[in-house]
C-alpha cells in the first residue's frame, strides 16, 4: 500500500486558483461518488479556503492519480495547465509527513492555528460517510489526529495568541487575570472594535458599554454583541467605572486627554485601568500611560507584541516538527501491519487444515463409504468452510480497523513477524 | 527525635522546592501537585518536630535563632498553603518554596541543642507573644515576595513586553489581592504581637514601653503597615505603591528581628 497527496495550498497557488479547486461541504458527497466511479477506492478530500488536497491510499497510486486528475478536469472545470503549475504530489513518507503537518497546523498560514484540525476531521468524516475510506486511511488519519493532539499539549505552538485583538485579551489577562467580573467601555463602533469585543466576550467579560458619536451605530453594535449603548456625552461617568477602555474613533484629536484621565483615576481611587487604543491617528494622549495604574497600549504596541510571538511560535514549530518526524519513521511499520494478505492467508490455511483433518478422521471411521458419497461430503465441508472464511474476509475488507485485525490475529493465533507490535499502538 | 523529624522536614521542603521549580519551567499541574504534597509532608513533619521539642524542652521552642527561624519557615509554609487554597495562586509556590528552603537550610546549620529556659523568658506570654509575632512576620515575608513579583510583573506590562517568563507570572490583580490579604491578616498579628510584648514588658521590666530599640523598630514597622492601610483606603495607593510599602515594611521587620539584636543590642537582645 502507498500513500499519496495531491493538491494545492496557499503557498503554491493564489486565491483565484484555490477558489476553482474548492469543493464545498454540500458538493463533497457528489464529488466523492464521482471519483469512486473512476475506480479510485480509498481517498480523503480536504478542501478549505487555504487548500484542497486529495489523500490517496492505494496499491497503484500513480494510476489513481491519473484518474483523479481526469475527474478533476471534468467535474470542476479546471484547466490542465493549472494542475501542472500549482499543484504538488507527495509520496509515502513525504505524504504522511504532510498530513501530520497539516493536521497540527504546521502547514497553515498562521502557524499553529487550531481550526485546521477540525477541518481535517470533518474531511475524514465525510470520507467515511461516503464510504471512501479503508484500512490504511482509517489508521493513518486516526494517528494524525493523535499526533496533532500530542503536539498541541507538548509544545506551545497554539499557546501564543497572534491577532491584535487576541493580544489585547492576553495583556488584559496579565493585568486582571479573570475577566469575568470586568467591564469594558468602547469608544467607536467600527469593524475592528467588533472583532476585539467578540474576543473579550469569549473570555466572559461582564459588561460592554458602547459609546459612539453617531448614536445609531453604537446601538447597532451594542445589539449585535449584547452590550449597552450610550451617547458619547456620557463618557466622563464611564471613565471611573470600567476596567478596560477600547478606543477606535476616527477623531483627529485625542479623545482621552491626560487631565480628564487623571481626574477619572482619582475618582476611581486608582483602580487599575487598561486602555487599548487601536485608532489611527491615536485617540489617547500617550502621556496618559504615565498615570499610576493605567496601562495604555496602542495598535503598534500590540502589533509588535504579536510579531514577537510569531517568532516564539516558529521556535515551538521546530519542536512540533521533531514530533512529526518521529511519527513519520513509523510509517513503513504501519503499512506493514495494515497488510492483510498474510492474515487472510493464515485464516484460510487454519480453517482449511481443520477441515482436512476432521474429514480424514471421519473417513477413517466410516470405511464403508463409497467414493461418490465421499466426494459429496467433501464438497459439503468445502462449502461450509468457504462461507465461514468469506465472512471473516468480508469483515477484514470492509471494517479492517486496528481492533478488528488484532482480534482476528488473536483468534487465529497469528503472529506478526519481526515487529514490535505494542510500541506503535496508539495511546489514549 | 525532634531533630530527626526536623531533618526529615528539611528534605521534604527541598523536594517540594525542586518540584515547584520544575513546575515553573513546565507549567504541568501534576508536577505542582507533587510539589504540594511534599510541602504538606514537610509541614506535618516540621510541626510534629516542634511539638516533640516542646515536650523535650518543657517550654515553647521559640527562644533562639534556630528555633525562631525554624518556626518562621513553618509559618510561611502554612500561610502559602492557605493562600494557595484561597487564591489558587499555584505559581507563587515557585517563589515561596525557594525562600522557605533558604531559611530552612540556614536553620539546619545553627546550633540545635536544647538549653534550659533562661529565667527572663519564663512567662505565660512566651508562646502568645512569639506566635503572634512570627505569624505576622511570616505573612509579611510572603507579602514581600508577592510585592517583588508585582513590581516585576508590572514592569513587564508597562514596558509592553511579554515573554515566556512573564506569561507564567500571576496577574497584577491577583498579586494585589494577595497583598491585601497579607495586610489584613498580618497587621492584626503584628498589633497583638506588640500589645502582648508590652504586657510582658510591664511584667518583666516594670514598664509597658521603655523605648528599647526593638520596641522602636516594631513601632516603625507597625506605622509603615498602618500607613499602607490608611492610604490605600483613602486615596487609592493600589498596586505598585502598596507593593513598595510592603517591601519597605519587610525591611523594617528584618531590622526589628535581626538588626536590632546583632547591631543595636538592647533589652530584647536574646532575639
Textual characterization of the structure:
- The complex is a heterodimer of chains A (428) and B (271).
- Chain A is built from 17 helices and ten strands.
- Helices cover 57% and strands 13% of the residues of chain A.
- With 428 residues, chain A is an alpha/beta fold.
- Chain A has helices spanning 15-21, 25-37, 61-76, 80-86, 92-103, 115-129, 135-154, 164-176, 191-202, 215-225, 235-239, 258-267, 299-328, 331-338, 341-365, 371-398, 402-411; strands at residues 2-9, 43-47, 51-58, 88-91, 183-187, 207-212, 228-231, 244-247, 273-277, 294-298.
- The longest helix of chain A is centred in the C-terminal third of the chain and has 30 residues, at 299-328.
- Chain A folds into three domains: 2-154, Glutamyl-tRNA reductase, N-terminal domain (Beta Polymerase, domain 2, 2-Layer Sandwich); 164-305, Rossmann fold; 340-416, no CATH class.
- In chain A, helix 5 (92-103) runs antiparallel to helix 13 (299-328), helix 8 packs across helix 9 (191-202) and helix 15 runs antiparallel to helix 16.
- The model of chain A is unreliable at 418-428 (pLDDT under 50).
- A six-stranded parallel beta sheet of chain A has the order 7-6-5-8-9-10. Chain A has a four-stranded antiparallel beta sheet with strand order 2-3-1-4, sandwiched between helices.
- Chain B has 271 residues and is mainly α.
- Chain B has a domain at 1-114.
- In chain B, 77% of the residues lie in helices and 0% in strands.
- Chain B has eight helices and no strands.
- Chain B has helices at residues 2-26, 29-57, 65-87, 93-108, 125-158, 172-204, 213-235, 240-264.
- In chain B, helix 2 runs antiparallel to helix 3 (65-87) and helix 7 (213-235) runs antiparallel to helix 8 (240-264).
- The model of chain B has no long low-confidence stretch (mean pLDDT 92).
- Classes of the chains: A alpha/beta (428), B mainly alpha (271).
- Chains A and B meet through helix 8 and helix 13 of A and helix 5 and helix 6 of B.
